[in-house]
Amino acid sequence: MKVFVTGATGFIGSATVEELIKAGHQVTGLARSDKAAQALAAAGARAHRGDVTDLASLRSGVAAADGVVHTAFIHDFSKFKENCEIDRRAVEAMGEALAGSKRPLVVTSGTGLLAPGRLAVEKDRQASGPNAVPRVATEEAVDKVAEKGVNVSVVRFPPSVHGRGDHGFVPMLIAMAREKGVSAYVGEGANRWAAVHRLDAGRAFRLALEKAAPGARYHAIGEEGIAFRQIAETIGKHLGLPVKGLAPDEAAAHFGWFAHFASLDAPASSKWTQETLGWRPTGPGLIADMEGAGLPAHELREAGYFGG
User: Fold this and answer.
1) Which of 27, 100, 221, 293 could disulfide-link 270, Cβ–Cβ 3.0 to 4.6 Å?
2) CA distance 48 to 4
3) Cα angle vertex 148, ends 141, 56, to 5°?
4) Using CA atoms, how far apart are residues 220 and 228, in angstroms rounded to an integer?
5) Residue whose C-alpha is closest to residue 70's, from 34, 106, 96
């Protein structure tokens, strides 16, 4: 299959490209720069110049493909709502380019917005409306193109997608702990984050593309829920810092915009996904990954958690 991948040099996208090529697919990745194009060539993929704000480049990339995997997202939280709307337009543009065909489109979303306080499952839907979290724009766009007959499905990811090269929420927490001199959690720290290893995430994308079930929501969840306090304690141990529980009204001052995520209780299940796709997570868990999972010291430094 000729597969067009957005975000192809990103943390999850690069794992997806590797998985697709290993399975015999021909991959073309969206590249914003010469550096990205070179990285794609080194991985054995072709480059298609453009970015997610260039809808013409997206449409032409889709036109030459048998299937599409959309992993790109602009992770600038100072412009979060704007970036969510950019993602909406990107999904709609790619969907329009696929209309009238059976070619699959697989889109990235998240589990954290689904069912705070209870185990989220694949049939859950994100709340819409004027007070909804802006990230719902992506799945709203998915539903819109699905109504037009596009073969679109969704792979949802947890708050932590971890592994070597992680630059997501856990490294943010580590940097915050270094800056503040304390590794903190909110309340008792019993709120839970689901997690998955990036290589397992890439395999989930590949299987979702190959199965191509219109309208399906899949959960790339390796661990259903890790207590946030355990994450904070692991950070404190490795940095030699005190670990402290904060009252809810202290969280905003300590975590800033991240307070919502530090308080998030978002366990999630992948039972249906595993049964449907035959997907089994095999990578190390989040805490094991943070601990180094047996890596030698020089490789642990490269992993970017505590040695970087």
Assistant:
1) 221
2) 9
3) 60
4) 19
5) 106
CA distance 293 to 287: 9
Q: Which of 223, 241, 274 is the last residue of a domain?
A: 223
Residues 119 and 256 in one domain: no
Q: At 44, phi and psi to the nearest 5?
A: 95, 20
User: 282: which 2 tokens?
Assistant: 């095999």
Q: What is the pLDDT along the chain (308 residues), one digit of tens a residue?
A: 999 999 999 999 999 999 999 999 999 999 999 999 999 999 999 999 999 999 999 999 999 999 999 999 998 878 889 999 999 999 999 999 999 999 999 999 999 889 889 999 999 998 777 777 888 999 999 999 999 999 999 999 999 999 988 989 999 999 999 999 999 999 999 999 999 999 999 999 999 999 989 999 999 999 999 999 999 999 999 999 999 999 999 999 999 999 999 999 999 999 999 999 999 999 999 999 999 865 554 444 455 588 65
Give the DSSP H/E element, type plus range, for residue 57.
Answer: helix 55-63
Task: Tell me: do 19 and 111 sit in the same domain.
Answer: yes
* Cβ contacts of 289 within 8 Å, gap of 6 or more: 162, 163, 197, 283, 303, 305
For the four alpha carbons of 78, 228, 291 and 204, in that order, the dihedral sign comes to negative
User: Do 181 and 82 belong to one domain?
Assistant: no
Residues 146 and 189 in one domain: no
User: Which 3-state string (H, E, C) describes 79-139?
Assistant: HHHHHHHHHHHHHHHHHHHHCCCCCCEEEEEECCCCCCCCCECCCCCCCCCCCCCCCHHHH
| CATH number, domain with residue 172 | 3.90.25
Q: Are 290 and 234 in contact (CB under 8 A)?
A: yes
> How many CA atoms, within 13 angstroms, populate the side-chain half-sphere of residue 16?
33
Report yes or no: 220 and 196 within 8 Å, Cβ to Cβ: yes
Question: At 212, which amino acid appears?
Answer: A
